[in-house]
Amino acid sequence: MLVFLQNTIAVEYSLKAGLHVICEKPISVTAETGQQMVDLALAANKVTAINLPLLYSESVDQIAIWLQQKYLGEIRKIILKFRYPQWPRKWQDVEWLKTKEQGGPIREIVTHFIYLVYYLFGEMEIQSSRNSRAQPDGYEHSLSSVFTVGAIPGLIDLETDVNEPEENSLILVGKEKSTRFSSWHRLEVLNKGKYEIFMEDSSNSSLQLVAEFVKQLNRKNGNLTSFEVATWVQGVIDILVS
Q1: pTM (whole model) above 0.90
Q2: What whole-number distance in Å separates Cα of residue 75 and Cα of residue 77?
Q3: Which CATH number is associated with domain 2-53+204-241?
């Protein structure tokens, strides 16, 4: 049986009951409690995974191919850009998204893109980070963070409650070409100063996650995001929300 959970106590009960577990992201409120879940999973020897669905994006697969082929040339900079005219967004009618502890765009959205950078390049190191909130326990109005992945510099640029179109994007500035992955599915290439659509991702990440989970259950090396990796991602998020 598969159970979708996001609570340390619930995960503990489920693993002790002999269940395999898929958790929604983030793995926990902090990396410290995430490590507790890692330890529980190792002790139970059950299949576990975190739902970070950009792993299954066709557009992300294409970026990985370009990087392997050096199609973009030397990567000079990685930019994560986020804009929200309103937070929570109009269709998100839940109070917890307004809070620092559980919600806010860093936990809700940036988590996915920190994982995406990890998936494509490896672990990032935060060099400096500054955020601001209208209220001490409220969501972020602004985030400006500088990071590195190996020798590649990167920026995280986030603003909420601004008069700009909504945007969630990964921008790779290459020596030969630059590309932008945005809106969760669109891959573009910069051509003569203008981004042009290369492809629109039509993959179903939820179905792919379940398919990969079943592979792992059958000992066929399913492509899953582990509790360990999700805990590393949460460690970065801990720094950004602090």
Answers
A1: yes
A2: 6
A3: 3.40.50.720
